[in-house]
Amino acid sequence: MVESNTPKKKKLQEQIDVQVAREMEEQLAREDQRRDEQIARDAEIARIHAEEELQMLIDGLDRNNETIAKYLHDLNKANHSPRRNKENSTCQCSKVTLDGKQNISRV
To answer: pTM score, two decimals?
Structure first.
């Protein structure tokens, strides 16, 4: 701000100072608005990426669960099949002794 000796010049300088201050405030407000909008866009992008990563993790867990369920189903099916039960009831165990003879026993 430049000091002026005459009242007319002083009044004009005050008006100029007020106008410059108003324009600076408006410019700062526009910059704040732009920054807020950019922050909102960045936050939305981060949210979308986080959702995508979570979905990928969920999909991976779902695949793991499906694999485990399949193995459990197959195991359960194998344990309850008639052939398996028959084998269990007439299991033959064979042993080879030190002299090379094979002993077979029913359990």
So the answer is: 0.52
